[in-house]
Amino acid sequence: MRRWGLTLPLPALPLHEHAELVRKAEAAGYTDLWSGETQGPDGFTPLVLAAAWTERIRLGTGVVGVFTRGPALLAQQAAALSDASGGRFALGIGASSDRIVEGWNRMPFAKPLTRISETLDFLEPAFAGERTSTGFKLEQPPAEPVPIVLAALRGRMLALAVERAAGAFTNFLPLSALPRVTGELEAAPEGFELLCRFFCLPGEREQVEPLARFMFASYATVPVYEAFFRWLGYGERIDPMVAAWKTKDREAAVAAAPWEVIEDTFVFGSPDEMRERLEAFVDGGITLPILTPVTTPDRLGEMIEALAPRS
To answer: Which domains, from first to last, does the chain contain?
Structure first.
């Protein structure tokens, strides 16, 4: 089954106004809704609402952090959402970033690979209804298996996903760098998923460039994403942007953002051009593209339908 996803929450739209568009997405053939968790709603609440608004679509956290939640709370939230959705839930977890964990939440951000591995050690028996090593046991374990997907940008986390998860979730990935990621997944079991979020901006270069430049500079200067782009081989191209951002010269950083990398990462143009671009990523190994339509609220419905999967 070919999968096609949409990000929740939809940009600039209050949660209480999502119902109609969520139903529209399911009717249009989207198979998945995956939440984000940065500065907007938490990763679970939009999916709880969507569980009541939909019948078939899969719901996934894409992703929630393991540093800002204890493992028992994470197990409880996942089990509750699996129950509320009738088993349509997949749990995407990740280390998040030092900016979010340390900067915003004032929590230590250390050894992310270890923390993810320890979280898996906890969740696997908890979801099976067993007592964990800490003495925790879910009162009502999930009736259906909860697939776990790991946010994985670079080698060691991708390897952990291959070894212990149902899939890997990447983000902000240039098309030309896709083989660098898929090359790390050669030992993945059958059915392993590679998810990627795509920021879809309708319009030609002159219309989308200012926003795309700012978004890229904001993302690629976060230490974990800076390391990701260096691992992909873009170090020299992002150096001027990173240097300007570190001096808090945002205008210079945005101006120095390398357009050829931005153009290779974002999805923009007409609906047909955006679809062609997404198809190129799918042909390259992305098994679940998750679309974030970046437009005004009054145009979201139109864009969701324009980018819906073809039957």
So the answer is: 5-202+270-306 (3.20.20.30), 204-269 (no CATH)
